[in-house]
Amino acid sequence: MKLVEINKDNWLKVVLLTTNEDGKGTVVEKFVASNALSITQSVYETGWIIKGIEAEKKLIGFAMYGFDEETANYWICRFMIDHKSQGKGYGRKAVELVLDEMKQLDGCNSIYLSTEPENEIAIKLYESLGFQKTGNINEGEAEFVLKV
């Protein structure tokens, strides 16, 4: 498994990945904004890094991370595994790859993320990787932090 650059050859495949069980992408999905919205956001806001997640030579997910100027913290802003690839252990390995890259960023001492409070699978994953609840709620999402 690896993180890959999003480019002219794979951007459409990344955009068409979805967490929606029916396989039809929407701008805002159940627990995450669409990859199309995230890619657009990364163009117009500075500090964000976007990567495709590849397993067995196939794009299976998307991550957006970097420095959020608004909060002055490093964040995993978006993370998703396509509905066809969920439940296979890819999420844990992909988050670990993102964390490894983020730890190399200059000044990255803490990594934040947030998720819907009812997204129990994601919360269990993040806590097992050492993330702890901060007690803050951001736009209805529970905030977590990992000290690195």
Give the low-pLDDT segments: none
Q: Tally the helices.
A: 4
CATH topology: Aminopeptidase
- Which term fits the overall shape? globular
How many distinct folded domains?
1
Q: Name the CATH superfamily assignment.
A: Gcn5-related N-acetyltransferase (GNAT)
Query: What summary fits the major beta sheet?
Result: 7 strands, mixed
CATH architectural category: 3-Layer(aba) Sandwich
Give structural notes:
- This protein has helices at residues 11-16, 35-44, 90-102, 120-128, and strands at 2-5, 48-55, 58-68, 73-81, 110-115, 132-138, 141-147.
- It has a 7-stranded mixed beta sheet with strand order 1-2-3-4-5-7-6.
- The chain has one domain (2-147): 3-Layer(aba) Sandwich (Aminopeptidase), CATH 3.40.630.
- It has 4 helices and 7 strands.
- By secondary structure, the protein is α+β, with helices and mostly antiparallel strands.
- It is globular.
